[in-house]
Specification:
The protein contains 5 helices and 10 strands. Helix content is 25%, strand content 33%. It has a single domain, classed as Cyclic phosphodiesterase (Cyclic Phosphodiesterase, Chain: A, Alpha-Beta Complex). The strands form 3 sheets. The protein has a 4-stranded antiparallel beta sheet with strand order 3-1-9-10, covered by helices on one side. A hairpin with a 4-residue loop joins strand 5 and strand 6.
């Protein structure tokens, strides 16, 4: 997975950060609708990364081996699970200085929250801003003009709710404006909570 990133203006071009993402698998119609919507409304990000839910946001204080270990431990507590996106919200992202259209997660939100918590159980926890509570979502549009975001026709995505499956975690490295897969960890419940 390699593409240019133009959607993160505040990140220094030489900065290397690690993310943990999960990619919902959708039926073919929903996948095509989401891809078309994102290609039109957030083309740079759509070229960089498929539709995803971010579980760990751009950390630099730990190496990929630490996040792989956390992801492997967390993956043993979860089997694949369904996610449902019944509605949306618009927000202003003060870090990226842009407005976003996000699909909210209902079914599967508890699992995503627990994964997020488990993946921040390390020294990089200091990089998580407690003023921004984790709310599971999938961003499908970005624009610095809130009027454009607010005017988007969500029906172009298809009929809500959209439903997908979460089957794995991916540790990715953002380096030189490119995203590199470090490790894919399948969810395979082997341990109880």
């Amino acid at each position: 997975m390699h593409a240019f990133l133009d959607a993160t203006p505040l990140m220094r071009h030489d900065q290397t950060v690690i993310y943990v993402l999960t990619y919902p698998f959708f039926d073919d119609v929903a996948a095509k609708n989401i891809a078309r919507f994102r290609a039109w409304h957030e083309p740079e990000r759509a070229r960089l990364v498929p539709p995803h839910i971010t579980l760990v946001f751009g950390v630099s204080s730990v190496g990929s081996a630490d996040l792989i270990a956390l992801a492997e431990a967390a993956a043993q507590r979860f089997g694949p699970f369904a996610v449902e996106f019944p509605d949306f919200r618009t927000v202003h992202d003060s870090f990226e200085k842009t407005d976003k259209l996000m699909l909210n997660v209902s079914r599967g939100a508890d699992e995503l929250f627990q994964l997020h918590q488990a993946l921040y159980d390390g020294p990089h926890r200091t990089e998580f801003d407690p003023e921004h509570s984790f709310q599971p979502h999938m961003t499908v549009a970005t624009n610095p003009d809130p009027g454009i975001i607010n005017a988007l026709n969500i029906a172009d995505l298809g009929t809500l709710p959209l439903t997908g499956m979460i089957e794995a975690l991916e540790i990715v490295l953002l380096e030189n404006r490119r995203l590199h897969l470090v490790q894919r960890v399948r969810l395979q419940k082997t341990k109880p909570f």
